TrEMBL record:
Keywords (A to Z) from UniProt: ATP-binding, Nucleotide-binding, Transport
Cross-referenced Gene3D superfamilies: P-loop containing nucleotide triphosphate hydrolases (3.40.50.300)
Keyword ATP-binding among record annotations: yes
PANTHER family xref list: ABC TRANSPORTER ATP-BINDING PROTEIN (PTHR42711), ABC TRANSPORTER ATP-BINDING PROTEIN NATA (PTHR42711:SF5)
Protein name listed in UniProt: ABC-2 type transport system ATP-binding protein
Family: Belongs to the ABC transporter superfamily.
Length: 328
């Protein structure tokens, strides 16, 4: 079935009270996650990603809103989905250190009501893929941090979860291990649905089908990366202009459009060429820019849209925040 929804969060809110202070960590956000997709939560530090993930897992209670996972209400029916979900939390060590990786897998299988025979094959499969086949009998406490992270992932995957939730799966990993994790996560799509959070934009760009961007607890954008790029390219342009004595005034006129919502950054390439980067609050403002250029007979020799790199898109969305409502 195309786009079958496996998780739905509807206007969820999380507020923490610390002494007399109240922190609105998550402010009425809503999103759906589709079967077998990789859905990424992105946002600056403190934007509410971990709080959202903890609510999805029933580890913390939402102050308002509903979560439906695999047809069950969270947190009310969280026990009914435990056997179908796996999670690795930010920096948390989910495993028992004195036991080997394999003993951990069998121990958690037992808790989840699964037989050793059910989990042995996926455990060996993922241990192989993650280059951990020789470490299955090692006590977790004696593995390196990257290996522990991989062991935690193997332990989750051995249970064949329908939904896997990973908060910062690349935290503290070296480049090689990051690539191994990335390959494994990309492959996971065949087996399960993945919800992850990460600050590593390159990784997210490579693995995620759709992403949701949080800023100060609000959802400011959501959709496939290409859609987000397109939405940005309507607002950001780079013009290369030939400077001539007769057209010097155009720049001043464009800069004076600031109050209308035009932001300008000029780079002088040489005595004859300017590169003008424009950020517009409305795509239609490009007509005003073009009229001004026409007035001064300043013909752009090159026009391009920004937003080609995901970093640019991300920063631009964060900068503009609430102006861009969730799309797609
Ligand atoms: N247990 C808690 N008690 C009080 N405030 C909390 C608690 N957990 C999180 N917060 C606050 O809620 C806000 C959101 O935090 P959260 O950990 O969800 O952000 P995050 O997006 O995961 O950040 P990071 O990228 O740093 O992991 C922050 O202001 C944080 O200080
Ligand atoms: Mg976090």
């Amino acid at each position: 079935m195309p786009n079958e929804i496996v998780l739905s969060a509807d206007r969820i809110v999380k507020t923490y009270t610390v002494g007399k202070r109240t922190v609105e960590a998550v402010k009425e956000i809503s999103f759906d996650v589709f079967k077998n997709e990789i859905f990424a939560l992105l946002g600056p530090n403190g934007s509410g990603k971990t709080s959202t993930i903890k609510m999805l897992l029933g580890l913390t209670l939402p102050n308002a809103g509903c979560i439906n996972m695999l047809g069950f209400q969270i947190p009310k029916d969280v026990n009914k989905v435990l056997g179908h979900t796996g999670a690795i939390l930010e920096g948390a060590r989910n495993l028992y250190w004195h036991m080997s990786v394999m003993e951990n897998v069998y121990y958690f299988a037992n808790i989840k009501g699964k037989e050793v025979a059910q989990v042995k094959e996926p455990m060996e499969l993922w241990a192989e893929k993650l280059n951990m086949a020789n470490n299955l009998n090692m006590p977790v406490g004696r593995l390196s941090r990257g290996m522990q992270q991989k062991a935690a992932l193997i332990c989750c995957l051995a249970m064949n979860p329908s939904i896997l939730i990973l908060d910062e799966p690349l935290l503290g990993l070296d480049v090689m291990t990051m690539f191994e994790m990335e390959d494994a996560i990309r492959e996971l799509k065949k087996y399960t649905t993945v919800i992850l959070s990460s600050h590593n934009l390159r990784f997210v760009e490579r693995v995620a089908d759709r992403l949701a961007i949080l800023k100060e607890g609000s959802l400011i954008a959501m959709g496939p990366i290409n859609e987000l790029k397109k939405s940005i390219s309507l607002f950001q342009f780079r013009l290369t202009l030939q400077k001539r004595e007769a057209n010097w005034g155009y720049l001043q006129d464009i800069e004076s459009m600031h109050s209308k919502g035009v932001k300008v950054k000029v780079t002088e390439v040489d005595d004859y060429t300017d590169i003008v980067e424009l950020t517009l609050s409305q795509p239609e403002l490009i007509f005003d820019i073009m009229s001004t250029l026409k007035e001064y007979n300043a013909v752009p020799i090159e026009i391009s849209t920004l937003g080609e790199s995901f970093e640019e898109v991300f920063l631009s969305l964060i900068e503009r925040g609430e102006q861009l409502e969730a799309c797609v």
